[in-house]
Amino acid sequence: MTDQSTEALLRRIADALERLAPPPPPSVDLFAYDAYVWHAEGSRLEPVPRVNRVAMTLLRGIDRQTDILTDNTRRFATGLPANNALLWGARGMGKSSLVKAVQATVAAEHPGRLALVEIHREDIPSLPALLAALRGVDRRFIIFCDDLSFDAHDTSYKSLKAVLDGGVEGRPANMVFYATSNRRHILARDMIENERSTAINPGEAVEEKVSLSDRFGLWLGFHHCDQDTYMAMVRGYAEHYGIEIAPDDLKREANEWSVTRGSRSGRVAWQFIQDLAGRRAKVLDAS
């Protein structure tokens, strides 16, 4: 084979490899948007032009949690020390809604200073890569994971512990981690019990798993709401979206709806309002 033919063959091989290789992720302006979604595959941040969020004024029955998380976030946005936060407790009581509402409130107070970056539960092992992408950027980021939990045989929680502790490099000063979970200790009870029954030193094994939640400086508990709080949620939504209905009818229909669902929560109140608006041909304009 001549040198010329060898060169041509190598060129064709190189061209084929370039076609097979994935294109580099497009550069993202980390100052142009209020929110981003992290994709572990491709290690890229996707901008979110419009965040699906609820106005702070519509979140009822969680005033104390709102005040604490807002204060923590304000300190973080202004460069002061702030804690990672774990919002745990009952489903549908506004945990993720509160994170997004607080970020919007504080970002409006400090334009361009604070952004939200959502990471999916299954992408937690890629957290170090996300932190590397944000480290050194002159902007503050809330890394947000909704419905964080770990099941048996899932060891990715160890990566999260290392990230929350900061590792050798330390946690980037421009980042805090907010997570929501239905479990106070994030890990399933049967997962902890399994460690207790199989470990050589059960106490140490359980301590390692439970200690994950200790990495969060703030623990904010959310509990099922009572009837008055549920109705305040319903009335707040109805007034906000201009749904005209007699107070007695609203109360009766909202109560019937909660009975069919077997619970009262902010999520149930919102689902009732969607049903009510649909029956009355009322469009719920985002605002």
Structural notes for this entry:
The chain has 287 residues and is an alpha/beta fold. It has ten helices and seven strands. The protein has a seven-stranded mixed sheet with strand order 2-1-4-5-6-3-7, sandwiched between helices. β5, α5 and β6 form a beta-alpha-beta unit. It is globular and about 90 Å long. The protein starts with a helix and ends in an 8-residue tail after the last helix. About 4% of the residues have low confidence.
Rounded Rg: 24 Å
> How many DSSP-defined strands?
7
* Percentage of residues in DSSP E strands: 5-15%
Structural class: alpha/beta
Q: What proportion of the residues is helical, as a percent range?
A: 40-55%
Major sheet strand order: 2-1-4-5-6-3-7
Q: What global shape is seen?
A: globular
Number of helices: 10
Q: How confident overall, as mean pLDDT?
A: 85
Largest sheet: 7 strands, mixed
Order of helices and strands: HEEHEHEHEHEHHEHHH
Query: Which consecutive residue ranges, at least 5 long each, have pLDDT under 50?
Result: 195-205
Cα separation of the termini: 70 Å
Give the SSE map.
Layout: H1 3-20, E1 35-39, E2 44-47, H2 63-77, E3 85-89, H3 95-109, E4 114-119, H4 127-134, E5 140-145, H5 157-165, E6 175-181, H6 189-198, H7 202-210, E7 218-222, H8 227-240, H9 247-261, H10 266-279
Which descriptors would you attach to this protein?
7 strands, 10 helices, 7-stranded mixed sheet, 287 residues, globular, 44% helix, alpha/beta
